[in-house]
Specification:
The chain is of the alpha/beta class and about 400 residues long. It has three domains: about 5-65; about 75-260, 3-Layer(aba) Sandwich (Rossmann fold); about 295-395, Serine Threonine Protein Phosphatase 5, Tetratricopeptide repeat (Alpha Horseshoe). It is about 45% helix and about 15% strand. The protein contains 15 helices and twelve strands. The protein has helices at about 5-20, 30-35, 40-50, 55-65, 75-90, 105-120, 135-145, 175-180, 210-225, 285, 295-305, 310-325, 330-340, 345-360, 375-395, and strands spanning about 95-100, 125-135, 145, 165, 170-175, 180-185, 200-205, 225-235, 250, 255-260, 365-370, 375. Helix 11 packs antiparallel against helix 12 (about 310-325), helix 12 runs antiparallel to helix 13 and helix 14 (about 345-360) runs antiparallel to helix 15. The radius of gyration is 22 Å and the shape is globular. The structure holds S-adenosylmethionine. The site of S-adenosylmethionine has 23 residues, from loops.
Length: about 400
């Protein structure tokens, strides 16, 4: 029979798990920790305090979310095939290196390799894809290169030749794709892996669970590993405000595609903080503009609380904001994200449905004021993605 685990033990172990993964403390559910605790909670705590690798790993595994599937976020693969590769060919490139950072069980890394192998005009040996993840079990599954039906989703068709059927509904990754892909155990909080700089970096659906501070550390590592012509991709909910330092949008901001500017392009003037207004300093005429409308100011204040880890204050500020200005869609999304990080999935889903309801009659290109002006389309796609993900998880 399992021993009772005191709340203080759970809280201390959750603090360790947050520090080791980079997760926001609010994103760690006590039940996940409770399940990881063996027969002797005191012994586990002692081992956690001396950073015993087995305990570090089992706590990280307990809190990690490994949801993934082939060709997730199709627009990213379409961008690579239609824009990135043709441009690199024109520039005279003869090889491409890609990194799937936080690759879970490998579906993303193999999808990238399949896309590059089919579209790039170079021999297979010139395509290298590295998948890294914190959880060894995920990497073992990735190296096995066989998958079940859950790795394929109707919403994400197989865009490039990737696998062959084996038995039942199982598939095996094509040998050429497998040979172009390797996997390594790495923590994104550490320095980037050897083998770079990388032309393409995917870090998608990972940072959504991270604290603002850890997310900044990881983004800095990713940018430092990016080649001068490189492109960095996030998931729709990962980094919600502003460009990573030195990068410019490669497509519509909501697609979360960030590239280094071309040498003759104006460079972003200063680092855009995660929750800051646009990266470039405002031109003189804009400096005289009146203060931002009240909801944006209130929203920015709530973001400062989030950055400082003051979740309860942030939650109060956002609740108040949504009551004062119920039509302020960026506030609804922010509140939903906070609820999600707090493990309150159904409250988050309710808020995302509210986002869809309140934007129903608006044109997709209509810009909405917020910490960063973004089109209605961005908020609707974010809400749709969230609700689809929640539905898939509940199946
Ligand atoms: C939701 S999955 C995303 C998989 C894939 N990128 C995708 O979008 O389909 C998040 C992955 O990030 C990994 N992860 C979380 N924290 C990490 C860290 N600090 N370092 C490396 N990987 C981490 C988890 O183990 C998990 O496999």
């Amino acid at each position: 029979m399992k021993k009772h685990v005191p709340e203080e033990t759970i809280a201390e172990l959750a603090d360790y798990a947050a520090a080791w993964t980079g997760f926001s403390r609010d994103a760690i559910l006590p039940d996940a920790i409770r399940r990881a605790v063996g027969r002797d909670p005191d012994e586990m705590l002692r081992r956690a305090r001396r950073r015993d690798p087995a305990v570090v790993h089992s706590l990280c595994q307990a809190v990690s979310v490994g949801e993934t599937f082939f060709f997730r976020h199709q627009e990213h693969f379409k961008y690579i095939a239609s824009q990135f590769l043709p441009k690199r060919v024109e520039q005279g490139a003869t090889q491409v290196r890609a990194w799937s950072a936080g690759c879970a069980t490998g579906e993303e890394a193999y999808s990238l390799a399949a896309c590059l192998l089919e579209v790039a005009p170079w021999p297979p040996g010139s395509i290298e894809v590295l998948g890294t993840d914190l959880i060894e079990r995920n990497l073992t599954a990735a190296r096995a290169a066989t998958y079940g039906a859950w790795s394929k989703r109707a919403s994400a068709p197989i865009l490039h030749p990737l696998c062959h059927p084996i038995e039942g509904d199982r598939v095996r990754i094509d040998e050429r794709v497998r040979k172009a892909t390797r996997f390594e155990n790495r923590n994104l909080l550490d320095e980037p892996p050897a083998g770079g700089p990388f032309d393409l970096i995917f870090c998608r659906n990972v940072l959504v669970y991270f604290s603002a501070k850890a997310s900044r550390t990881v983004v800095a590592h990713l940018v430092s590993a990016l080649a001068p012509w490189g492109v960095l991709f996030f998931g729709p909910m990962d980094v919600t405000h502003g460009a990573p330092h030195g990068l410019v949008p490669g497509a519509r901001p909501e697609e979360q595609i960030w590239r280094r500017p071309d040498p003759d392009e104006p460079r972003p003037a200063k680092p855009a903080r995660r929750h800051a207004a646009p990266a470039a300093p405002p031109p003189p005429s804009q400096k005289k503009m009146p203060a931002p409308p009240e909801p944006v100011a209130l929203h920015l204040r709530a973001l400062r609380h989030i950055d400082r880890g003051e979740r309860h204050v942030a939650e109060r500020a956002l609740t108040e904001l949504c009551q004062l200005v119920p039509d302020y869609v960026p506030g609804l999304v922010e509140r939903a994200l906070l609820k999600m990080r707090n493990g309150e999935q159904s409250a988050a889903a309710q808020l995302m449905r509210e986002v869809l309801r309140r934007t129903e009659k608006l044109g997709p290109e209509e810009m909405l004021a917020g910490p960063e002006p973004l089109p209605v389309r961005f908020y609707r796609e974010s809400a749709d993605n969230f609700l689809r993900g929640a539905e898939e998880l509940s199946r």
